[in-house]
Amino acid sequence: MVKARDRFRERLEETLHQKLTLSHPLFSMLLDEKRADKELLKRVALQGYQLTKNFLTYIENLFFYCPMEKHKRRLLFNMFEEETGRLSRTKNHVELMQDFIRALGISDQERDAAVALPATQELIDFRMEACTTAGRYHIGAAAVLIASEGQNLETLGEEARHTILGRVFGLKEADLLFFSVHQKEDVGHVQQGLDLVADLCTTERMQQEALESVNLTCDLFYGMYQGIYETVKRGELSHA
Question: Which domains does the chain possess?
Fold first, then answer.
C-alpha cells in the first residue's frame, strides 16, 4: 500500500513532468538547424545567466535553514559543487556559464551589462523570497530543488537541449560543460529535493503549497522564455 508521504512525493514529480518548458515556441526557433540564429542564442544565454548568478544564494539559504540533518548534509554537497565544481571535476558553476557565454562571442563587459527582463526578474524574485522568508522554506525547496533543478532534465526525444545546441551552433563539449554537468548532477538533486519536500510537508496545507510552488515555478520559467520571445518578435533586446 502506498503511504501518504510517498503518494505526495509522486504528485510532486508528476507536477514537474507535466510542465515542460521545452514546448515553448522559442525552442523551436533556437534548435532549428536550418536557422542557427546565434543572436537569439546570445539573448537566451544572457537571460539564463541572470538566473545562474543567483542560484548559489538559494542553495545557501536552503542549507542554512534546513531543519533536517540528513537533508542538510545533502544540501551541503549540492552547495559545495555549485561553489567549487570539485565533485564534477570542473569549476564553479557561474564560471562554467561564463565559459559558455564567451564561446558565443560575448565579451565579459557585455555579459556584465546585461539585465534581467521583467519576467526573468519575476522568477528570480519569487525563488529568493521563498528561500529567505520564515514559514516558506517548503515553498522555496519545492521551487528550487524540484522545479528549477528539474529544468535541466528535459530532453527532445533522446537528446538533451545542450547536445542539440552543440550540433546546431558548432559548439565544443568544453563550451557546454555548464549544461552537461547539470544534466548529470540534477538527476540526483531533484530526487533529493523530492525526498526533502516529501519529508518536510507534514500537513495537507504544506503539501498543497509545495505542489503550487512547483507548478508556479515552471510557469515562471515558461514566462521567462515568453518574455524573450516577445522581445524577439518586436525586434528588441540586443545581446549587449
Answer: 4-234 (1.20.910.10)
